[in-house]
Please model this.
Amino acid sequence: MGAASAGTQELADHGRCSHPRKLLGCSLFALFTLTLVYFIFYSPPPSFISYADLFVQLKTHEATKNSSPPPPQAWLQCDYSNGKWVWDDSITGPRYDSENCDMKSTVKCVVNGKPDKGYLHWRWQPAACNFSALNPAEFLRLVRGKQLAFVGDSTARNQAEALVCFLSTVARPDTVHRYEERLGRKFWRWVFPAPHSVNISTYWSPLLVRAEGPSEDYAMTQQTVILDALTEPWTADLGSMDIMMISAGHWFPRSAMYYEDGEVVGVYSRPDVNKTDIGYLGVYRKVIRRTLEYVNAKSSSAGDKLVVVATIAPAHFDSKYSWNHRDACSRTKPFEEAEAEVATTDAEMRKVILEEVETAAAAAVGTQRPGVRFEVLDVTKMATMRPDGHPGPYLFAHSYDWRPVPETVGNDCLHWCAPGLVDTFNDILMKMIVTGGS
Ligand SMILES: *[C@@H]1O[C@H](CO)[C@@H](O)[C@H](O)[C@H]1NC(C)=O
Ligand SMILES: *[C@@H]1O[C@H](CO)[C@@H](O)[C@H](O)[C@H]1NC(C)=O
Ligand SMILES: *[C@@H]1O[C@H](CO)[C@@H](O)[C@H](O)[C@H]1NC(C)=O
Model:
């Protein structure tokens, strides 16, 4: 319980998360606290016992599915990143049952008793085209024999687990690698056996490059980031990845000391050391560029590869409250268009991804390597509009079934409930796979 009391101390020290500029930092801090919550409340995920229930869920989903998706050509023209969330009465329930699914318990909002269920009923409507949910059987058919890898921070894992859960409604995966480390879930692989032969893996690499500090061990306080050292195990497995989904960003706007060529090249938010503060944005760009250059260079002989990079999906710690107030993210509706806009810091990080992916794509063509295709999963706008999509204080099974939520509580206003809008990210990912033939 030493960790828990340290956490309480930090909790007290971070009462000033209410300032909007501090939101990213605070959401990260919330991550650490969540880890403590995780230590205290985590129990091993239930085994796959109730598949009958999952099939019932699937039938519900099939029955409510929209008309057939537009042809791939139409989709290529579609700017899905701009649009709005519309209430959809035809959605009758969750896409899948997270209870019987191998997923971090803190995002199982239905199981955890989040009282608002409205977040399940919003459908993303792109401004200029139509868009439908993925069909899990169809998805498994499309990616038969392929290895999908989700590389990055816990948002990558959030998305991977949602996908695995949804696919579990039609086929049962085996978990073949599972390192139950102190923080849990740093590298997992789910194998959908033949006839699918599909692997889905998550690689914990929140800064993509090597780092020493809380990103590797929450007990440490100072983050050291080695800008020129991409990390195993994802680099080691790169050759076998057919589809690589990179999602990393939330760990960058955090105080750190940066090294390159063995020298300190700067710091971010470290007034305690006499080194130049170089900010995190240039560092983010450098790391993304290095990652994509590496992927490009190593993909020459490896056959077709689809590399998708997600833009930042912002957290929603309401600036009216401290991060640990029970109402830090208690909204039950998406924002209206006029109510919110993408924050400057998020817009800057998004721009880095758009530009670097474009550069990587151009380089891939320039080197006559059409085998690797780069895409952006541009979720910043759609995520910005969804303050209602987070677990909030509902972080463990039946969190507050019999008692009121205390005013001061651990909150997750960063990750997404699953099922929830994170499934839309996977719907878009599927469209990219369909249109590329990867
Ligand atoms: C989208 O679907 C609606 C309703 O089915 C239809 O009226 C509209 O023309 C479609 N729009 C596009 C761009 O296909
Ligand atoms: C999936 O993982 C298993 C076990 O790690 C491995 O034997 C198999 O070759 C992998 N399949 C694909 C399609 O990558
Ligand atoms: C900080 O570093 C600079 C350059 O190395 C040095 O000139 C300066 O004296 C240092 N300041 C302090 C307070 O140590």
About this structure: The chain is about 30% helix and 15% strand. The domain at 2-436 is CATH 3.40.50.1110 (Rossmann fold). The chain has one domain: 2-436.
